[in-house]
């Protein structure tokens, strides 16, 4: 069991009734709670959703809380300060005045900073500090009116060879405030991507998907991400730029293995973070197995940090990997499947 969960168990006597666990670790915490506690889970990570489903837990995936009543909530501190603000606002809007919201996190994950975000909603006290973690208790003394999801998005402009795009990025989504360098390096090369069925793996706020739509209205774009806030951001970006939603299919995925088959192209600025941890599994699996999802002659386009070993992984799978660009610490990598002699 994770240290964060162990701290919760240490303070188990504070828990009662219908308890919502937000952003909970994928461990055995639920099975260690008392039988009189009715626990539910809210997650926006599709991998974690699948885990809790397999545990037969009462779990909800999405940007909003489940439509149910809760007496208490335990929030496991997310990486993003803005995302924690959103979560706390949602909880205070739904829980009764005087309810307890517990905040749990690692010291290295910024739990002490996060605890200050409790203060606008009531009195907060530190319950425990153990295993390099802390647990805080907020007793709410007010309620708030929920704000529509769109009001939580930050917007910024991105200049492309086909005109400007207005990007909408919700809390916690990669590169929420500005265009990241990797995507900026990749954008000029998207004009070379073959048209047809294209997957944007790790779509984030939808920069790549929106540009591919702008380039060719005949493209069929599959925006794939593990994060519900990213998927919602991509849809908002399409709507903000008046791009045809019939071009877009948004899909929550655990990894590239959930992508459609017979794609003309896969384009990605691949993810390498899981919460506060660095995790290259999803992007390395993309390099190794993307070929299975491409039709004959299909293309893989990736932008990645220069120091990563993606070219070797791609070459081992495709037989070749071409570096289209190497600038500002990033490489644009290209490979394609060999067309059969019948084509």
Automatic annotation (TrEMBL):
Pfam families: MTS, MTS_N
UniProt entry tagged with the keyword Transferase: yes
EC annotation from Swiss-Prot or TrEMBL: 2.1.1.172
SUPFAM superfamilies from the UniProt entry: S-adenosyl-L-methionine-dependent methyltransferases
Catalytic activity, reaction form: guanosine(1207) in 16S rRNA + S-adenosyl-L-methionine = N(2)-methylguanosine(1207) in 16S rRNA + S-adenosyl-L-homocysteine + H(+)
GO cellular component labels: cytoplasm
Location in the cell: Cytoplasm
Domain of life of the native organism: Bacteria
Keywords: Cytoplasm, Methyltransferase, rRNA processing, S-adenosyl-L-methionine, Transferase
The Methyltransferase small N-terminal domain, residue ranges: 5-156
One Gene Ontology MF term: 16S rRNA (guanine(1207)-N(2))-methyltransferase activity
Domain Methyltransferase small: 165-333
Function description: Specifically methylates the guanine in position 1207 of 16S rRNA in the 30S particle.
Record family assignment: Belongs to the methyltransferase superfamily. RsmC family.
Subunit composition and interactions: Monomer.
Protein name: Ribosomal RNA small subunit methyltransferase C
């Amino acid at each position: 069991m994770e240290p964060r969960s162990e701290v919760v168990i240490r303070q188990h006597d504070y828990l009662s009734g219908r308890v919502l666990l937000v952003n909970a670790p994928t461990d055995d915490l639920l099975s260690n709670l008392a039988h009189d506690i009715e626990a539910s889970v809210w997650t926006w990570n599709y991998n974690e959703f699948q885990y809790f489903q397999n545990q037969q837990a009462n779990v909800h995936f999405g940007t909003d809380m489940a439509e149910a009543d809760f007496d208490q909530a335990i929030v496991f501190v997310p990486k993003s300060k803005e995302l924690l603000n959103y979560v706390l606002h949602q909880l205070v809007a739904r829980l009764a005045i005087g309810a307890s919201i517990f905040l749990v996190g690692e010291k290295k994950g910024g739990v002490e900073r996060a605890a200050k975000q409790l203060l606008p909603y009531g009195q907060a006290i530190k319950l425990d500090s153990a295993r390099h973690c802390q647990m805080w208790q907020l007793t709410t003394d007010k309620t708030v009116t929920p704000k529509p999801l769109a009001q939580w998005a930050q917007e910024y402009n991105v200049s492309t060879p086909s005109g400007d795009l207005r990007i909408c990025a919700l809390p916690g989504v990669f590169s929420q405030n500005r265009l990241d360098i990797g995507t900026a390096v990749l954008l000029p090369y998207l004009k070379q991507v073959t048209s047809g069925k294209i997957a944007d793996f790790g779509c984030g706020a939808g920069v790549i998907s929106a540009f591919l739509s702008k380039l060719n209205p005949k493209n069929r774009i599959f925006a794939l991400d593990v994060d519900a806030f990213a998927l919602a951001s991509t849809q908002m970006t399409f709507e903000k730029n008046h791009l045809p939603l019939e071009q877009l299919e948004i899909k929550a995925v655990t990894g590239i293995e959930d992508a459609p088959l017979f794609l003309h192209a896969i384009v990605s600025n691949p993810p390498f973070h899981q919460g506060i941890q660095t995790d290259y599994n999803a992007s390395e699996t993309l390099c190794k197995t993307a070929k299975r999802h491409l039709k004959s002659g299909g293309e893989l386009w990736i932008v990645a940090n220069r120091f990563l070993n993606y070219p070797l992984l791609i070459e081992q799978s495709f037989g070749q990997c071409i570096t289209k660009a190497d600038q500002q610490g990033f490489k644009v990598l290209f490979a394609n499947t060999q067309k059969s002699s019948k084509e």
